[in-house]
Amino acid sequence: MPSSVVSKMIYDGDTETLRIVYVSGMVYDYKNVPLEVYQAMKNAGSKGTFLNTHIKNNYEFDKVSD
How many CA atoms lie within 13 A of 39 on its CB side? Predict the structure, then answer.
């Protein structure tokens, strides 16, 4: 999953939480993300573009750490 923005993605299907670990080290949990959206991001050619277009500003989030 090479990306210049996203270092790692972790999805918890029980809580529909998508954890994004950014290359910068910041960690965010996006809430109520449907499995289909996670799968689409996993398959996207550009994780950063998908994140900016489909995740940010569409789902509530908690900043976990930086």
Answer: 4
